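Kindly review this record before class:
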Amino acid sequence: MAEVLPKLGRDIALEVKILKYEMVDNAPDASGLAKGLEALKARVSLAKSGQHVEYLLQVRRDGSTWTLRRRFQQVSLMHESLRRHVASLPELPAKSVVRQFSSDYLESRKNALAAYLNQLAERRDVLNAAAAQDFFGLLEREPSLQMRSRCDPFLAAEVQEVTFGITSFVTDPSRGLLLLGASDCNWVSKLDTKITNIKLPWEPSAPELPSSQMTLWKELAPGSQSYQVQFCCRFGPALSSVALVKGDGACALCGLSDGSVGVQKLSAPGGVSRGATLPLLKHTAAVSALAVDEKERWLFSASKDNAVKVYDLVRRGAAFLRGFAGQQMVQCETHAPTPVTTMLFDEAQRRLFTGLQSGVIIVWDTSILPLKVMCSIPDTTQALSRITGMDYEAGSGTLFSSGKDMLGVWKLKSASSGSWGRSVGSISAQNVCTGVAWAASSRELLVSLATGAIVAFALADGTAGPSYSWQAHEDEITHMQWDDAQRCLITASKDKKLRIWHFFAPGRPEPSPIATAVISTAPSLLPARRGAASQMEGVPVRQTPTVSPPSATPSYSYPASHGPVTVPVAAPVAAPGCQGDDSEDDLTGWDR
């Protein structure tokens, strides 16, 4: 059996007691009516000053004991901070609208707080959080906790998409390729794009501003983790997922909200272009997930119209080498009971896992067409939360799933009579779970949250508990991928960043205390907008193209560090009798 590597974080043990509570009166000296008003103000005020209660805490760790004075307001602030990056927390005693100082009430509040703090002191993930360490006074007494340890994840690299939020990505480590799918996640910007794209009666054509893009990055040198943009393919519809086809005729694919699948050859010249779509592959609703069978050169596409289609990308190879036409066609089509939200393909066992909106996972046999249903997990009609992510360990036949507020662990079994899935365990979560990844080397289940945090659950002896958490992004994490051989985690978020985290691995040198991430930034690809709505808050400021003489074509130029990339832009057209200019007010003088 392989050695289990150390888990994330430190092992911290605490004992917490509330010795007593004390009434504290910070109000200025007063008499008569003024004193009565101060007492009334202290009872209903939320300010820090005035009459309040302080609790005397006794904290013990490794033979050392110290006391702390804490107010309920400080407990509440710590609770709110922890809620963002842990899966769940014990319930905090309710706040009182009006301050109460009766002995019975204060004694009850003291007991409830003591129970709450004791539950926090037993949580490994909570005690590894800076907010809890500061509250319990650990940072003052153990300065080493402020230093990064070898068991903490290290941010090794970051790729920044400055235009849209990242929704999906695929990596090819052997060739150093990174394919990013980004879509406009700001509703103000999306509305502005739709308004700008409206063709007015006096205009020859609409601007056709994109709302998503598929970008291919290449690593500058093996192991450098510094990436450079190769090409950018832009689309009008929103983008939900991406896929990468390797080998001969390699290409990049993306699922679009109009039901089509965008495509671009990896051998395409560098620059920015409008994306093409696969022929004969069209859903009646938005494409929600993509998966690729590299051996058979099949593309699995799932849509919100409940359809799951199998598309032949090569068809004996000749059609693909000639282009994206020829004999490419849909091989079969089947339907799921509810829309598919995510897909996972296991090439070794020829299994396709589809997570549904209803919370059910359908396992398909892809060894022969048409697709055959092997089993449904769980086999129940009970309404569950939709599946947001899956991971599969083929060696043990274990499937991990994340739902809106629940994590599931399943064992897949097969026999001559059929196949089935058995629940091994489940974990409830208060925050919305957006993805899941299984780290087999350390036996940890990594779960991404809508708050931008990642929580690690340690699985041992059939039990699972949260062991570590950290704030990985500033916004919702949309996709993540774990590489167990390299012990690294890749995460993408709506905050327009993709980050590569290194975990402890034998033989890998530890990063220095002052080491920082290698940052790769994409050039901004925002064209000029027509309306004033583009200047609204939350929308990046546009770059104004340089207007050249009529014989020339205006263009965008990008920094030299990203290579020469030029985007052609149509020259402005002035209405008859109007004087052309480069301002945003395209309607000036149209009535003349």
Q: What stands out?
A: The two ends are 83 Å apart (CA to CA).
